[in-house]
Amino acid sequence: MLQFALSAYNLLCRCLGVAFAVWFTLLFVIIIVPAVLGVSLGIHGFYIRTLCRLFEWTTSQMELRAKQKNQQLFKPHTKGILPKSELLSVQENMQELRSSAHSRRSEPQFDLADVIYFSQKGVESIVDDEVTKCFSAQEVESWNLLTRSICRFPHRGLRLTLLWGLGVLIRYGILLPLRVILAVTGIFLFVVLSTSVGFLPNAKLRSFLGEKVHLMGYRFCVKSLTAFITYHNSENRPKNGSICVANHTTPLDVIILANDRCYSLVGQVHRGLLGMIQKAMVKSSPHIWFERAEVKDRHLVAKRLCDHAADKTKQPILIFPEGTCVNNTSVMMFKKGSFEIGCTIFPVAIKYDVRFGDAYWNSSKFGLVRHLLRIMSSWALVCSVWYLPPMKREEGEDAAQFAKRVKAAIAAEAGLADLTWDGGLKRTKVKDAFREEQQRLYSSVLLGEHQIQTEEICCKDETQEED
Amino acid sequence: MGSRASTLLREEEIEEIKKETGFSHSQITRLYSRFTSLDKGENGALSREDFQRIPELAINPLGDRIINAFFPDGEDQVNFRGFMRTLAHFRPVEDNEKNKNVSNTEPLNSRTNKLHFAFQLYDLDRDDKISRDELLQVLRMMVGVNISDEQLGSIADRTIQEADANGDGCISFTEFMKVLEKVDVEQKMSIRFLH
């Protein structure tokens, strides 16, 4: 009996050993080697196409079930709840509201009905507003077999629930461990190689090899996230000695962009693992890392950026002017700091396909590690990157206007909404100055001043601080 | 993943809300997902802070008064039913509703009820009268620091003089309705939904 158990156990170990060896060899050949060499085997494309077909089938199944139950299929409100109305000035609204046209009197005109305008605007913003929508995850049009969107879609049925269960097994049992191993291998290789390159005496060789090592590191990261990136208009890829700006959705934006060419990153020095990676990065290529205390000193930051950008041989600096992660449905206000420097700006637009996994990092809900795990347990990270033609500040245009122009170009290219609200509203309250502006506008109406131009009811850039 | 209040609304609840407020099925589910997205504490109720987090509402001069309208009787939390009941005042009046009289109670979005909502924005202590003081306070909220006390006082006095029919120095709801009788309240106090 014991003999039998022992021999069975031995057999099991051998089988597991063989299985593990096979799996590891496959992993090595199919994923790691191509990642190091920069070659693609076309597996990702096949995977994405299969998933697309699967999602279409899921939707049709759900529609069928909904029809059987005689109910409407729940359609998420991706276009918002209220129709967009034109922004009339406070004055125009008041005039419409008041019962009779008052002639211009020298005394202030108040009407008890004025409160209706404010209450209408207020309740409209309660029902649907532009800003809070940007800070929560984007909704999928139809179910993508992920647990996170399961609650919104009731018409699942047995087949889909089984499929979802299978998906959970595959994603958490196979894909997630695979991706984590890849990420760890990649980071380890990168740190070791980058540090070794840093010891080379010849500067040219160092920068050449440094670039290769960086690209390899990013390719590993991309593979570990199963990121499927399409680069458009590569002729506009950022050149040396410039600044690259992009919309920000997740810290992984850096990896998405750096997969194509090397950038110099700007950021705070961190401790721990991230700090070690930062130190390794700096050994083989120039990056701008600030101590926490220095970040507060805007002039120092600006000076270092200027110096780096002035050197035409140096890699382009990658900056995210929104200052915070936004959910990839809109672009929020660009802080003007990076637009004051005066060199060429290469705008880049990034748009993620939310069907395969939501890439937005909601930093108030979960930390970075949990965010990475969420991405690694989604189906894939599919995105499009558009390189826009370079832009320079024009005559008579100040930094804030230039920033607005660049933002509009990025929003138009990626099909995102162009908002003038500050991304900082994610965490902070809106400044009193804006309410005071509304009060001022209303007072002008009361006092009968007709020379008010149509003001935007959104935030103004001049009063904003840069990061 | 969250065991949040993204549990769907039960059909019976939707029907009840439909009867009470007149919103359609899809409008109710839509507003429910809006409600849950505002509910950061995920406890099935909204607090005043949840409303104040909306920037467009925070810059509205009467933002605090509007938020107050959602919290009757000094409570601190409003659940979905209460939320819908207040929003129902802003439901557009459909033409076929004007002649229908399904129940004996007036629908929440009738002209009278809409005007009552506006009246309550002025009536700070809820005593069904707008006193000179209350009018001054609301005016001050709307104009900020841009108009002097004397000017504001004379505006308030003139308004009360024009509106006050029975001479008690306050504006009652009936007097308020009389002043606003020419205003197209049904159109101005309505939220038109996309679908």
From TrEMBL, chain A:
Indicate the principal place this protein occupies in or around the cell.
membrane
Q: In which pathway does it act?
A: Lipid metabolism; Phospholipid metabolism
Where does the record say this protein resides? Membrane
Biological process (GO), any one: phospholipid biosynthetic process
Query: InterPro entries recorded for this chain?
Result: LPCAT1-like, Plipid/glycerol_acylTrfase
Q: Which SUPFAM superfamilies match?
A: Glycerol-3-phosphate (1)-acyltransferase
What's any one GO cellular component for it?
Answer: endoplasmic reticulum
Which residues span the membrane? 20-43, 180-200
UniProt keywords, alphabetically: Acyltransferase, Lipid biosynthesis, Lipid metabolism, Membrane, Phospholipid biosynthesis, Phospholipid metabolism, Transferase, Transmembrane, Transmembrane helix
The UniProt record lists the Phospholipid/glycerol acyltransferase domain at 242-353
Q: Which GO terms describe its molecular function?
A: glycerol-3-phosphate O-acyltransferase activity
Question: What family name appears in the similarity comment?
Answer: Belongs to the 1-acyl-sn-glycerol-3-phosphate acyltransferase family.
Report what the protein is called: Glycerol-3-phosphate acyltransferase 4
Automatic annotation (TrEMBL), chain B:
- Biological processes per GO annotation: protein transport
Taxonomy, superkingdom: Eukaryota
According to its UniProt record, where is this protein located? Answer: Cell membrane; Cytoplasm; Nucleus
Q: Which GO terms describe its molecular function?
A: calcium ion binding
Recorded hits in CDD domains, A to Z, give: EFh
Q: Name one Pfam family in it.
A: EF-hand_7
Enumerate the InterPro entries for this protein: Calcineurin_B_homologous, EF-hand-dom_pair, EF_Hand_1_Ca_BS, EF_hand_dom
Q: Where is the EF-hand domain?
A: 110-145, 151-186
Keywords assigned by UniProt, alphabetized: Calcium, Cell membrane, Cytoplasm, Lipoprotein, Membrane, Metal-binding, Myristate, Nucleus, Phosphoprotein, Protein transport, Repeat, Transport
GO CC annotations on file: cytoplasm; nucleus; plasma membrane
Q: Which PANTHER family match?
A: EG:114D9.1 PROTEIN-RELATED (PTHR46002)
* Family per similarity comment: Belongs to the calcineurin regulatory subunit family. CHP subfamily.
Protein name (Swiss-Prot/TrEMBL): Calcineurin B homologous protein 1
Species, as recorded? Oryzias melastigma
